[in-house]
Here is the input.
Amino acid sequence: GERRLFVERLVLAENEEVQRGVIAEMEPLQRGDFVGIMMAMSGLPVTVRLLDPPLHEFLPDLAEMTGEMSRAEALNSDVSPREQAIFAAVKRLHEANPMLGLRGVRLGILIPELFKMQVRALVHAAIEVRRLGHDPKPEIMIPLVATQRELLHLRETLEEEIAHTLSSTGQSLDIPIGTMIETPRAAITAKRVGDYADFFSFGTNDLTQLTWAFSRDDVESTFLPRYLDLELLPFNPFESLDQDGVGLFVKMASEAARSLRPDFKLGVCGEHGGDPRSIHFFHSVGLDYVSCSPFRVPVARLESGRATIVKSSTSSTA
Here is the structure.
């Protein structure tokens, strides 16, 4: 839609001045989105994950464009300057494995103005929601962190932007900044990462892919069905959490975080947040909440309640 076109223009920007102009145009749209969400969620936390997808997802497919350009050349057809610019950008941004490339925190470090814009929009939106008599509780989540240094670097950038924006408005606002734990390294070094995070949210979709060296888009259409038929795997690890492997990362990181602060907020986001078996595991290791797609919410609420009852009953029996 409209936002996709803005990101396309951002990618095609010829210099930083043009890039800043596009980002400035995007800000009111983001602000409007955030106002609507925080109005609906008044009094409840709203966690905003900063832009995570690789930039190439906002551009045409390289193979398709290469074919189109080749056909145009063969037919001596004219190619517009815009099409040439898009093709050049697609080639420049092409990655062999984009899900492990320029996205998440890395994008925020390379193009800090993009994340700073999102943060400004969030702050101004929260102030507007408060002015309208509601109670906004915004939080910021940084995706795909692997080291504490990346988190600290980006956190300092965002905190400076928050302080500057609040100072210019004469308002005060507390905005926790946390991170997703979706790389094995972040899970293993969670105690160090936790020094610079106000909360953790386990991104178990990516954590599963990276732990298993599985590309979900590929394995579910190739060998995974056969593995399940042969009982080499007891279940699809993208549908129900692999507690022995991925679950161990979650448990390790949770314990590390709580050793820093007993009230360290921990949650999970992804499809596992709506899976009954996974929810019981998350409750057993002390996570505070699960987040999932809307159609899974009824099951998630039911199983969260059951998990609490089961744990309470077990504690009483003991």
Notes: The CA atoms of residues 2 and 29 lie 9 Å apart. DSSP finds 15 helices and six strands in the chain. The chain has a mean pLDDT of 93. Strands lie at 45-49, 137-142, 177-181, 199-203, 265-269, 289-291.
